[in-house]
Specification:
eight-stranded mixed beta sheet, mainly beta, Immunoglobulin-like, signal
Length: about 1000
């Protein structure tokens, strides 16, 4: 055993430690840790050197002193290895006042027969120990090797008794955590703070700080090489990035020292650009903002653009990453602009490659062809830092969608879903979290085969996540994990799987064999009867974790209905190890689902049997009024219909007005309808007011509706459409708003006159225009009112024929009534359709007058001459008069004499000069006037001047009152020719 200098080493370390000790005051402490990452034989160590003959290769372990303290030796590395990468961590707490801390390392070969053998790890002659001093402020070191050199090789001068066979030892120093990795992400603190040097030179091989690593926040580095266009797209990469960014702050059991949520994904796909991106960046958060960003279709998860709720863009703008323009004026164009790159922009540090060559056609999972490519294209200096993957079509006959383990993965689906799943395997997750049960309902994780399409969300879209899935997209809240056990023959529908998760869904096969998503916070329909409530209590029996009826996913096939299914907490279980071996041995050859299988699952999980009915009210409907359609959509399941659209086809003669649902030009968007539920909404349309008028009568209009689930198929589309027909009639409130008659005040008996009538009509609709007709009483002919429009009143004119057939006052009453001209049209308010008009006419008795009896012509010399005249008593028909007249009954003092117009109007000024009449048998009118007819007439005298007779007056008349039968008093009127001289 070569331990000659051990006592001297301890003494020197103690002296150095005492020299730097704090003066007298008590101080806090600070950790310092060394992680030995590699030990390698430089000189021969197989049956020679460190090992004697027949002892095979070395069995390494290390002794470490920190600040003079001999720490317990490290575990022993696997036997008989010339190279090990053990990641042994040794740490100690030192006073926080210390600025320099010495560390010494010895490398030994375990030998129980001849004693342990010391290897030479020091480049100094006559020294086998690696001695360094750590600067506690920076974590860098000086001594046998100086930072950034992190590997030491012994000088190997075996001629000197003090030097042993050479070994190489590589290490990293942390002054932040006793584990050497403060944030627990598998990347040593010194690497993240200063970069990683993979060999004994002084060159940083992986510049982690420039790549964005943070020693106080978990980082996950992935390199993904690809073939052609077979690779994840931007939105799926964005979803993967969002899933890790929202990880619990203590994912893997170690909290982020910065106190923030998440693991930062650093994905190296080289300078791979996507022309559909924009140089100014794509909109963020559009699939969870509650807004229809395009303004024409569904919102958030209801929009098929939003497959990934965190990574997708709703109604994305057109890309500009291939237009040869610097659109955001940052001096970088198209693929040279970081915003156009699908993954991270590592610039010159990028190593992601587009692969070419025949070897790419032979990859199937993690087979030899995979490792041939890995060994050629993957920078070995990255092996402890990056998980390495290849995105490529599987070789002919390959039935794997992907495979991942031990720092490697193959992605044959070319999607972010598979990327996330395979990285999960590299983080230590199995298909059931802690086991290989691939379709457990109480395990809501993308590692589950059933969740390979993504974890479905209520109201549409998916997220990528491990268990428990986040409820808030930013990870500030999550569901519960592990979920309670499910015993397949003791199921209880009254027990909700996760009452606190109101957004995510889990998937199971019910007792009828249907596999479908269900709300985690709802009572599960284990029985599949679709008739809940009531909910069936235990025991309900169902084979929850098997395939669907078509046999997908095949690896989930089983017949047991008595299994106890256990949930798992992925985020607490994940492991972010320091080392990824990269070999092909002992790999899990169980294939992950292919993209075709995933698409079949996605289709299944969105298969919903929709049906629709359509009714109308009112029927018939009046033109110019609103017509309301009621649409009822039902989902018979088995899956929720996460984005239901109803396209309502209105008749061309109606105009959309409103809806109780959200409707755009492309349809009415109802959101989600759960299985076995329905949704009812209305659409109100306005019927054109002139529809019936244009049609020439009532018209039947037909509306239709067609429903679809934008996220998935309908197994029976025969009931996805419905129609209804409505009779449109004309309905208008017609009215007579005015009716007047302009009648003369008097007529002679036997005389007729046309009395002017004026009728005002109007319509207040709603139908307009409408043909109407006005009906009159009193023998007046009907008046047609064509196309009477709403709000456009109209005045009509006609006449009524009036005749005086007897003396005295005659009162005439007329009515005017409007009505629709067509029997099909309707006036809903007839109370304002009719008006009346009334007038009274004085029927005056025509009489025979003889001025200056016996004289012809009747010459008058005004103004002083008195004019005698006789009002003659006549028989009916005499002098063509219609009535017999007794002139002796005249009331002389009522009689006025004058020109015709004045006399007829009752305005004549001539009065009987004697204030009485003279009854006598006067000469009758004739030529010559010499005949007396033997009856008594009334002779009266008037002054010519006061009667208003003037030159040119050719006719003079009298008008007065006469007492008739029954003592009734009537007016009489008569005229005779005059000559004024």
């Amino acid at each position: 055993m070569r331990l000659r200098h051990l006592a001297a080493l301890v003494a020197s370390l103690l002296i150095l430690a005492l020299m730097q000790a704090a003066p007298v005051q008590a101080a806090g402490t600070k950790p310092v840790a060394i992680t030995i990452t590699k030990v390698k034989c430089v000189d021969d160590c197989r049956n020679d050197g460190l090992e004697s003959d027949a002892e095979s290769a070395a069995d390494f372990f290390a002794e470490v002193w920190i600040d003079g303290v001999d720490l317990p030796r490290t575990p022993r590395a696997p036997d008989d290895q010339e190279l090990v990468e053990p990641f042994w961590v040794k740490s100690a707490d030192v006073p926080d006042t210390r600025t320099q801390v010495p560390i010494s390392v010895q490398i030994w070969d375990w030998d129980t027969t001849s004693g342990h053998d010391n290897g030479d790890a020091s480049p100094r002659n006559n020294d086998n120990n690696l001695d360094i001093t750590v600067d506690m402020a920076t974590g860098r070191w000086t001594g046998d090797v100086n930072w950034p050199q992190s590997c030491s090789i012994g000088d190997g001068n075996q001629d000197d008794d003090e030097d042993e066979p050479r070994v190489e030892v590589c290490f990293d120093i942390s002054t932040e955590a006793a584990t050497g990795d403060a944030d627990g992400d598998g990347l040593l603190d010194g690497w993240e703070r200063h970069g990683y040097n993979d060999n004994a030179d002084s060159v940083i091989d992986v510049d982690l700080p420039k790549m964005g690593a943070d020693p106080r926040h978990k980082d996950l580095f992935v390199e993904l090489d690809y073939v052609g266009d077979h690779h994840p797209d931007r939105e799926s990469v964005a979803e993967v990035r969002a899933a890790y960014a929202a990880a619990p702050k203590d994912a893997g059991g170690v909290p982020n020292p910065d106190g923030k949520l998440g693991i930062t994904l650093h994905l190296d796909m080289g300078p791979l650009a996507d022309r559909d991106l924009r140089e100014s960046g794509m909109p963020q958060g559009t699939c969870s903002d509650g807004v229809d960003n395009g303004g024409a279709d569904a919102i958030d998860g209801g929009d098929p653009d939003c497959y990934y709720l965190s990574g997708s863009v709703e109604d994305p703008p057109a890309g500009d990453c291939d237009d040869n323009s610097d659109n955001d004026t940052d001096g970088k164009t198209d693929a040279n602009d970081p915003d156009c790159v699908i993954a991270d922009d590592f610039g010159a540090l990028a190593r992601g490659n587009e692969l070419i060559g025949d070897g790419t056609t032979k990859v199937c999972g993690l087979n030899d062809a995979f490792f041939d490519i890995r060994n050629t294209f993957f920078d070995s200096a990255r092996r402890h830092i990056f998980i390495y993957g290849i995105s490529v079509d599987g070789s002919p006959g390959c039935t794997k969608g992907g495979q991942g383990r031990d720092g490697n993965f193959a992605d044959h689906n070319g999607t972010g879903r598979t990327l996330f799943h395979e990285v999960g395997h590299n983080l230590g997750l199995q298909h059931g979290g802690h086991d290989e049960n691939r379709c457990k309902p109480n395990y809501v994780s993308l590692m589950s085969y059933d969740h390979n399409p993504g974890i479905p969300r209520q109201d549409g879209g998916v997220i990528l996540d491990y268990s428990p899935p986040r409820t808030a997209l930013d990870g500030t809240s999550r569901g519960r994990a592990p979920l309670d056990d499910l015993v397949e023959n003791q199921l209880d529908e009254n027990k909700v799987v996760d009452p606190g998760d109101n957004v995510n869904r889990f998937i199971f096969v019910d007792a009828t064999g249907n596999k479908a998503p269900h709300d985690l916070n709802a009572n599960p329909d284990w029985s599949g009867d679709g008739n809940d409530p009531p909910y069936e209590p235990a025991p309900v029996t169902a084979n929850l974790d098997t395939t669907d009826m078509s046999g997908d996913p095949a690896k989930c096939a089983n017949t047991s209905t008595t299994d106890t299914l256990k949930g798992s907490d992925d985020w607490r279980r994940i492991k972010m190890p320091y080392t990824h071996p990269g070999g092909a041995s002992d790999l899990d050859n169980d294939p992950d689902p292919t993209e075709a299988e995933i698409q079949r699952l996605w289709k299944l999980f969105n298969t919903a049997g929709l049906s629709v009915t359509l009714t109308d009210t009112p029927d018939p409907v009046a033109a110019g009024t609103d017509l309301t359609y009621t649409i009822k959509v039902r989902n018979a399941g088995p899956a929720p219909a996460t984005s239901v659209r109803a396209v309502v086809s209105l008749p061309p003669d109606v105009q959309y007005k409103s809806s109780s649902a959200r409707c755009t030009d492309s349809g009415c968007y109802l959101g989600e309808i759960a299985a076995h539920e329905d949704r009812t909404f209305t659409v109100t349309a306005h019927v054109a007011e002139d529809l019936v008028h244009r049609n020439g009568g009532p018209k039947t209009v037909t509306a239709g509706v067609e429903v679809s689930n934008l996220w998935g198929p309908d197994p029976d589309q025969s009931d996805n459409k419905a129609t209804t027909s409505t009779k449109v009639v004309a309905v208008a409130d017609l009215a007579v708003t005015g009716f007047t008659a302009t009648a003369p005040g008097q007529l002679l008996v036997g005389q007729s006159a046309d009395v002017p009538l004026k009728v005002s009509v109007a319509s207040t609709g709603p139908s307009s225009p409408m043909h109407a007709v006005v009906n009159f009483t009193g023998g007046v002919a009907d008046l047609a009112v064509p196309a009477l429009a709403k709000g456009a009143p109209r005045d009509l004119s006609t006449t009524a024929r009036v005749t005086c057939d007897k003396p005295g006052y005659k009162t005439v009453g007329l009515s005017a009534e409007i009505a629709p001209a067509s029997a099909d049209d309707v006036d809903p308010e007839p109370g304002n359709n009719k008006r009346t008009a009334e007038f009274t006419i004085d029927c005056v008795i025509p009489v025979a007058l003889n001025i200056k009896p016996g004289s012809d012509p009747n010459s008058i010399n005004p103004p002083n001459a008195n004019v005698p005249l006789a009002v003659l008593t006549t028989r009916a028909g005499e002098y063509d008069l219609p009535l017999a007249f007794d002139a002796t009954a005249i009331q002389p003092l009522t009689v006025r004499f004058g020109p015709r117009a004045a006399a007829w109007a009752g305005q004549a000024t001539g009065l009987e000069v004697h204030e009485r009449g003279h009854v006598e048998d006067s000469l009758e009118r004739g030529n010559p006037e010499r005949v007396r007819d033997g009856d008594s007439d009334m002779v009266l005298h008037f002054g010519s001047g006061e009667s208003g007779l003037v030159a040119g007056t050719t006719e003079a008349c009298v008008k007065g009152s006469v007492t008739g039968e029954g003592s009734n008093v009537y007016r009489f009127f008569g005229c005779d020719a005059t000559r004024i001289v």
